[in-house]
Amino acid sequence: MRSLATGAPRRGRAGFTLIEMLIYLVLSVVVLGALYQVMIGQGRAYSKQRELLDVRESVRSASALLGWELRQATTSGRQLIRVTADSVRLLSIQGLGIICAKHATLPRYALWRTSGDVQGTADDSAAIYHNASSSWAAKGVRVSTVGTPASLGVTNCSWGAGGKTPDLGVELTVSATADTAGVVVGGSLRTFRAVTYGEYQDAGRWWLGRKVGSAGAVWEKLTGPLMSPTDSGLRLRYYDAAGNATATPASVVRVEFLLRAQSRKQYYRSTGDVAFQIDSIRARVALRQ
Question: For residue 223, which of 56, 45, 67, 83 has the smallest C-alpha distance?
Fold first, then answer.
């Protein structure tokens, strides 16, 4: 029997020794440091990918827009207006409508299901498609007046029970009756306006923009940022039917353009510095005759 003097057996004390604490601390620092480096790498990769998607979207949208405008420009009845290495002026589609009635004697037409912006300024012209002949019966005619159907004497459409009410009435300026002789009810009408596409600078960066109408119009921002003109942000080349480069608007049948864009924001590279993502696209467009 154990005496009271000796007491109960001693139990081991809970806790860590100083050496154990130091080992745990070092391991924790190593693990946290590794996790931090992984997080930094993931953040930079995400930033790089985000800016890459941004710049690719810019060049794709700009290419689609320029390609559409160039293909459709010559359906207005004339070729490109002005061509330079970093800008182009052309006739751009502004409004659409279906001819649903004709004036008995004058080149006045009622339009149904109109959309866009139909005006009669000095910069506006029109082309009317003749379904039966599959051709543009009237091309390059001037829109002189835009008004209500009643004011132009074409109050009802020629189809439907009792006639549908037109959305708009237009009058064209023609030099001879033959200019609109092939226009029939049911044909589609397109209106065009002179538009300049090019690069312009805003807040220290370059953008793809356009000027609608007169040459003194202000730039409308479309997409970007682009590289500067000296770095070929936008470059256009023009070719004639023989495949030769040309600077004569009336001779152009094909246009080649290069777009080089930057991302809106910078990203951190693996070297620790920051930079913009850059991407480019090159396209060739045949003008629709």
Answer: 56
